[in-house]
């Protein structure tokens, strides 16, 4: 089940690379928390990358279970502040696309790295995602509410990845048990 889930994530990552980064069309016309909360859900690239962080954290286990998502959210916030401030970050769209591909492959290959290296990697990717969220925040938005919305949404997407991995492992364990004769 774990391999099936991983293969599905990798397949979606490949499909996403062929699409424009859908969450970056200036569509966030809302002004507060709900608009911020919905922004990461509006693009497959954000969904896949943020769920992949949770999947990879759960695969890695130990301290990575919480440290990878915390690193992502921390750097996402920094990237968002840069985007809101008009600070340019080069190759944001390419960085977002790379995050989907790389994180998808890490999950597919069940690749474990030192926690600090994993934190650095997801942190770099988070800057791109955060910058996109911050730069696209509507001028009429309430920055604190909009930011709180996309941060909560991101945390929940990480949690969805962690939960999916836990469910997948539970199903795999149950299916591996010998049946009573």
Automatic annotation (TrEMBL):
Tree of life domain: Bacteria
Keyword Membrane belongs to the record: yes
Keyword Transmembrane: yes
Organism of this sequence: Azospirillum endophyticum
Signal peptide from the UniProt entry: 1-23
Protein name in UniProt: HupE/UreJ family protein
Coiled-coil residue spans: none
Pfam families linked to this entry: HupE_UreJ (PF04955)
Keyword annotations: Membrane, Signal, Transmembrane, Transmembrane helix
